[in-house]
Fold these 2 entries.
Entry 1:
Amino acid sequence: MTKPLHLEQWERRSHFEFFRGYEQPFFGICSQVDVGNLLERTRLPGEPSFFVASLFLCLKAANETEEFRYRLRADGVVVHDVIHGGSTVLRDDETFGFAYFDYDPDFARFADQSEAVLEKARRDTGPLNERPERDDLIHFSVIPWLAFTSFAHARKRNPTDSVPKIVFGKYHGEKGAEKMPVSVEVHHALMDGLHLSRFFDRFQTGLNAFP
């Protein structure tokens, strides 16, 4: 479900109008998050994968940061009640596909359905399962082979594209204190660095407190 954002009452109205006309209105930040606690937990027998747990905590932080649920429409801005995840998944044939993960605030339920989605996506072949009609998503990618320090996305020219893009990189460092690079790219008409920083704070809090 969505509701309209009342622009006339929005304290960022002038910033929205300023950035919405930019040819390239997205900005991005790449930061390191501490994943030592999460790795320790997910290495235990019977625990969900590190990716599934990371995805859950990231979606939780995004849903708790209202600006991540804002989306552009031709006639204004809407606010989604809940946003979900769409991610690249490495297939068995070393191509990638897209998989979609419905956010559930209950981690056990989220993990159960996500592990099944991952397993199916790895076995899939053929065309990409693109869902351009949906913007109640965050677009995720994973590059577990490289601890990058910056990231740039391929983009189509679409004046209403406002879906955030998040990329997880290779974790690195001493055991128990590993860091993971996370790139986040968002639409500047809908949020600023302050909101992105709040998202990172919430994500790190979740990583520290898991499970």
Entry 2:
Amino acid sequence: MKINVYMQRCLPMVIFIGLSLIVAWLVPAFANEPQDEVKYETGFYYTVKKGDTLWDISQRFNDTPWQWPDLWKENDQLPNPHWIYPGERIRLYLKSDKHREQMKAVPTVAPQAAVSTPEPEAAPHVNFYYGHMDKVGFIRKPPVQPLGRIFSVLNNKTLVSAGDVVYISSPDSGREADFAPGARFTVYRALSPTEERHSDRKIGTQHLLLGVVEVTQNESEYAIAKVIEGFRAIQPGDLLMAYQERSPEILVTESTPGIDGMIIGTEGHNILIGPNMIAFIDKGEVDNIREGQQYTIYYQETKEDMNGKKIALAPVDVGSLVVLHTEKTTSTVIVTDANEKINPGQKIRTP
């Protein structure tokens, strides 16, 4: 009787241990199987390397390992926080700017004769993911020369969307050959030249991207195309430029030192600027601005002292942004953080 009672008490534990061993054997096998693609949201992502744990990743990007539960919570594609594998992408739960420090270049050590020096540890591979890169517009001076123009819509539809048929004409005679069946074009609208705030300087023409069309038939004087994607309302008169697919993943890189610029405005001409809004800055390729760089949004007040002397107070950081696209003298950015009111004309600087 005592033996039977003992077995009854031990049986659940034996079953639990057995199941644990089976799971431990199956998980590595399934880890190598193709996984469903993770649905990424806008944000920073780290690619897991061999030996990484959520504890280590939290220490690296949040200054403390104890934030790993928040890191796990941000990544619901991870069924178990103790099982992460090389190649997986972890959405970073950032509570500080530590990720910026990690992007600093690693100094190389000059080789020395008869001395073996270890390879410097590579900087962490961090990407910024933005799933709508194909519809990110830009400001350019001079503006893009259009390859074509939509002059009509099948059935005279006023709300053009994916699947609708449009008719295209070329602004230049002899360019009809560019509209071969299968050719794709980005539909855009050229808005009036943007003026820099507090000055009369013309920054350039805003190019608002509206969608993508694909040519299905080429006639002698026009082409017929189908709308593949519609980002915004398309209408007769809208222009075409060459289509270039852009990756939604941008490698986070070190910011250019000494940058002090300004937010020109937003893509939607908003008065107030908040997180995840697309905006433009007055710095570009000539200023060594690159995709994936991060900059701080700030304001700085000037006050008069008791003697009437103007004194610039210490800058106050109010947000941050990531560069998505660069032109010669301007760049398109996304605001990633805003803890106070931000308006066009707000200053930006190197972190």
